[in-house]
Design a protein that fits this description.
Largest sheet: 3 strands, antiparallel
GO molecular function: DNA binding
Protein name: DNA-binding protein
Structural class: mainly alpha
Strand order of the largest sheet: 1-3-2
Keywords: DNA-binding
Shape: flat
Number of helices: 5
Organism: Muribaculum intestinale
Order of helices and strands: HEHHEEHH
Length: 128
C-alpha cells in the first residue's frame, strides 16, 4: 500500500475513488446476503405478557390490571380472549410519559394553579 501525501488539488479525485470502492463493497455484501441496502421501515416490536409487563414496571399483577383500567392514564394494552398483551416499547413510552417536571414551578404558575381552583374572587383581592 502506497502512502503518499494527498494535495488539496487531488482531493476530489481521491474522494470519488473511495466512493466507487465503497459502492463495490456494498454491492458485494448485498449479493452475499450480509447487508441490505434498504433500511427497515418498521422497527421490530416485542410482544410481552402480563407477568413480564409486571417486571418491567415493577408492580404486582393486580396493580397492573388496575392500571390498565385506569380512567386518566391507562397502560396501553391489547386483549384477545382472556389474555392481556403489551408491546414493550409502548410500556416504556407510557413510563416516560409520566415524568414529573424536575424544576420547581414559579410563583406565577403556583398562583395560577391556586386561583384556578377558587370558585370566586375574595373581596380583598388576591394576596400573593
Amino acid at each position: 500500500m502506497e502512502t503518499s501525501k494527498i494535495t488539496f488539488d487531488q482531493l476530489p479525485h481521491v474522494v470519488s475513488g473511495l466512493s466507487e470502492k465503497l459502492d463495490r463493497v456494498l454491492d458485494l455484501l448485498e449479493k452475499a446476503g450480509i447487508a441490505s441496502h434498504s433500511k427497515q421501515t418498521k422497527p421490530s416490536r416485542r410482544l410481552v405478557y402480563a407477568k413480564e409487563a409486571c417486571q418491567i414496571i415493577g408492580k404486582s399483577l393486580s396493580t397492573l390490571y388496575r392500571a390498565v383500567k385506569a380512567p386518566n392514564d391507562p397502560i396501553p394494552s391489547y386483549k384477545r380472549g382472556k389474555l392481556l398483551y403489551f408491546y414493550e416499547d409502548e410500556i416504556y413510552a407510557w413510563i416516560e410519559g409520566g415524568r414529573k417536571h424536575s424544576a420547581a414551578p414559579s410563583l406565577a404558575e403556583t398562583a395560577a394553579a391556586i386561583t384556578a381552583g377558587m370558585k370566586r374572587r375574595p373581596r380583598g383581592g388576591y394576596n400573593f
